[in-house]
Amino acid sequence: MNEYKNRLTILGPSVTKKGYSIVKCSCGTVKEVRNDHIKTGKTLSCGCLRKEKLSEINTSHGMSKSSEYNSWKAMVHRCNDETDERYHDYGGRGISVCERWLNIENFIADIGLKPFKGAQIDRIDNSKGYYKKNCKWSTRSQNQRNMRSNRIIEYRGEQGLLIDFAEKFKINKSTLAKRIFRSGWTVEQALETKLVKGQKIFKEVKP
Question: CB–CB of 48/57 below 8 Å?
Fold first, then answer.
């Protein structure tokens, strides 16, 4: 597996930020970088490596037809490509892919191949980015339960995740969320009212 070399030379400790060092990248850029990111290899350059790897995303790595490649490519794009429809939920709010994982071979070396069909890359802490200690392969259902958009609702005295109630009442999660948070239905109305086939949620008449 190929691994990218550290392009940073430490010039000294930062005088303005505790826990940071002033570094010079091989491209000539000088900036402040967190010491723990330097130590763990999470940051290997001033950002120039990230730009170089993004330009190579669509090239072949011998895995371009694999499911792992598709997951990796989607992960990188939603964090770095401002034209990606999901960018505002990821890169737009500071979620990043560590520089080591901009190489698919390093990504696979750290997280392994998918252990089962349909596995999805899942962050353990949704407030943090994509790197080895914060990611794992999960089922689609496990991943959805860990999404920051998955809210807790209360139904007749019982509290639980919206997705769990949606599965219990056999209602699409998005439909249930729209009923409660956009159309102003009570949780009871949203769960107990069945959607007529072919009928759109916003045309439903509130019970």
Answer: no
Q: Are 133 and 37 in contact (CB under 8 A)?
A: no
Residues 161 and 186 in one domain: yes
- Judging by beta carbons within 10 Å of its beta carbon (0-12, 13-18, 19+), is residue 165 exposed, middle or buried? buried
Tell me the whole-structure pTM to 2 decimals: 0.50
Same domain, 125 and 164: no
Give the residue ranges of the chain where pLDDT is below 70: 1-4, 51, 53-62, 141-150, 196-207
Phi first, then psi: give them for residue 188, nearest 5 degrees.
-65, -45
Residue type, 69: Y
Please, which contacts does 193-199 make with residues 24 or more away whose CB atoms are closer than 8 Å?
195/171
